[in-house]
Write a structure and sequence with these properties.
The chain is of the alpha+beta class and 339 residues long. It is built from ten helices and 15 strands. α5 packs across α6.
Length: 339
């Protein structure tokens, strides 16, 4: 079949809308019509040429939602008409990583996915006979895409595509980091550095678990209003606050105990997201590491979520009274020749 897609031909160059050829699904694969796709900073990172796994030409995009159009041989969990969210972190449930239940870093198709290929080491996309690479196993910047069955999460059919597409990355990363990785408890005080897509979903996760004070720190005052809709209780702008650390200490009666990308401790959680580099580095450094005092540092991939958690996130984020419904800031229909 043919389908329209935004193709990244080379690093640093604008995407172009092309009509590409797409092979049907092979064994264990599913053809999905993408109804909505978010744009994540990771897509920009890859397009910039800084991504060591970046490969071109490729069809980017990994925050999508759509409908199953067809299934290949061997597919047992999905059927035509099912509504799904593609997952860049699949869940095969048979590799040792999945079976351990201690990580979501499924390895079954990692070797080919990182090379922009399907599990059989070929691409389903092409143009004029030349292959175009997949991206993160999803390629949601295409009207249609082929995805391994194990990299799709089935969701309820009445979930709005333009609201749930973010769950494929930003939502799972932020909320999952709070619930699954940090295991933040009700009543905790929290500080979130940077109120971009991940930061907002960290806040949303903190609200879900019943955190007490949820402090947002960002250089952009325009982000305060949206962050408050997601559950932020206090806002600090390093540009207008003389001493950020002191402000946090005063608000929390003791301050943040740990810091770094998606860090946790027993009582406090701190996430760095989308904040200008070194903008408040002095304040940040002075928060202290304190690992010798029992503090812990944890990394997370997609929030530690598994495919089975996605349907629950759809329920909590879209149909419960949380800020997910307000996450999108721009809506674009890509019909022009450049994107």
């Amino acid at each position: 079949m043919q389908t329209k897609a935004a193709v990244a031909w080379k690093s640093g160059q604008p995407l172009t809308i092309e009509t590409v050829d797409l092979q049907g699904p092979k064994f264990g694969e599913v053809l999905v019509e993408i109804k909505a796709s978010g744009i994540c900073h990771t897509d920009y990172y890859t397009l910039s040429g800084a991504d060591p796994e970046g490969i071109f030409p490729a069809i980017l995009g990994h925050e999508g939602a759509g409908i199953v159009v067809d299934v290949g041989p061997g597919v047992t969990t999905l059927k035509k008409g099912d509504h799904v969210i593609p997952l860049y972190t699949p869940e095969c449930r048979i590799c040792k990583f999945c079976l351990s239940r201690k990580t979501n870093l499924c390895q079954l198709i990692r070797g080919t996915q990182g090379k922009g290929l399907m599990p059989d080491a070929t691409s389903r996309f092409s143009l004029n006979g030349d292959p175009i690479f997949h991206y993160m196993g999803t390629s949601t910047f295409s009207n249609h895409t082929v995805v391994p069955e194990i990299a799709l999460a089935k969701i309820r059919s009445d979930a709005p595509f333009d609201k749930v597409c973010y769950i494929g990355c930003g939502v799972t990363t932020g909320i999952g980091a709070v619930i699954f990785t940090a295991k933040v408890e009700a009543g905790a005080n929290a500080v979130v550095f940077g109120l971009g897509g991940i930061g907002l979903n960290v806040i949303q996760g903190l609200k879900m678990v019943g955190a007490d004070k949820i402090i947002g720190v960002d250089l952009n005052p325009a982000r305060e209003a949206m962050a408050r809709k997601f559950g932020m209780t206090h806002f600090i702008n390093p540009k207008t606050t003389e001493n950020v650390v002191d402000a946090i200490v005063q608000l929390t009666d003791g301050g943040v105990q740990v810091h770094a990308d998606d860090l946790v401790s027993t009582h406090h959680f701190c996430a760095l997201d989308d904040i200008q580099a070194n903008a408040s580095q002095t304040e940040y450094d002075h928060v202290g590491t304190g690992f010798d005092l029992g503090r812990e540092q944890h990394g997370t991939n997609a929030g530690g979520d598994a495919a089975a958690d996605v349907a629950d996130l759809v329920e909590g984020c879209v149909f419960a009274d949380f800020g997910q419904r307000n996450l999108g800031c721009h809506r674009v229909v890509a019909e022009r020749g450049r994107a």
